[in-house]
Amino acid sequence: MSAGRFRDLLVAEWIKLWSLRSTAWLVGLGTLAIVAFAAQSSLNAYQSWPGFTAMEKAMFSPLDEAFSGLSASLLMIGAGSLGALTIVGEYATGLIRTTLVAVPARHRVVAAKLTVVAVVTLATGALISAGTFGVSQAILSGRGVAVSLGDPGVLRVLAANALLAPVAALTGMGIGALLRHTAAAVVTVCAALVIVPTFFRPTVHQWLDDLYALVPFYVWRVCLGLPQVREDPALPTVAGSWAAFALWPLAAAAVTLIVVRRRDV
């Protein structure tokens, strides 16, 4: 496939992605909502700071005010739903038939879709990560408790926050390709990416801890999303957590490719 031909596919997939009404809502309003939530949370902490006990001040984490577990949940659900709708929408409208008539090589279509969704959601995740950090730390600096990019662990946390979006989106595409039903795909995305992992906790069973360490939301919550990582055999390592972040979108991309190539439209 020539570079020019693939660029044409990328342009076509870009147009189709932004023609979905859900894209503008999820990306635009989702970004504003998460940044606004960070600002409100930081303002509450700023106003309440004089009344904090010594222990509360010692335990305070400025990064939690910027990007909390709720923010991560909203980002993953939104991005995962967008990824699922990107492919489910084409099957629902029948547009996939037109696409595959124009481009019979299905793997090229899938590659273009994956690339566009990955780029859009990575940019969105990066914007949200930077925006929430900048807004919250600007507010908290008034109390002298803000952190900077040079502080230990901060860049890792910001990178992990940003990568939640493409990880969820590509996973959503894989789920959408498998189910081909809007409601079922969105519900499965929410359950697999956020709802079920929310209940995961370190256990005394190493095999179970190792299983949990394969789940992106869990490793973000107990490892990558923390500026200071705890050394505990029951908890995932930083390297293992990054591997989990890579495993899910790669597996989902493979599933999407296999399903689209082998199933009838």
Automatic annotation (TrEMBL):
> What domain of life is recorded for the organism?
Bacteria
Q: Could you tell me the keywords of this UniProt record? A: Membrane, Transmembrane, Transmembrane helix
The transmembrane residues are 24-46, 66-89, 110-133, 153-175, 182-200, 239-260
Is this entry keyworded Cell membrane? Answer: no
Indicate what this protein is called per its UniProt record: ABC transporter permease
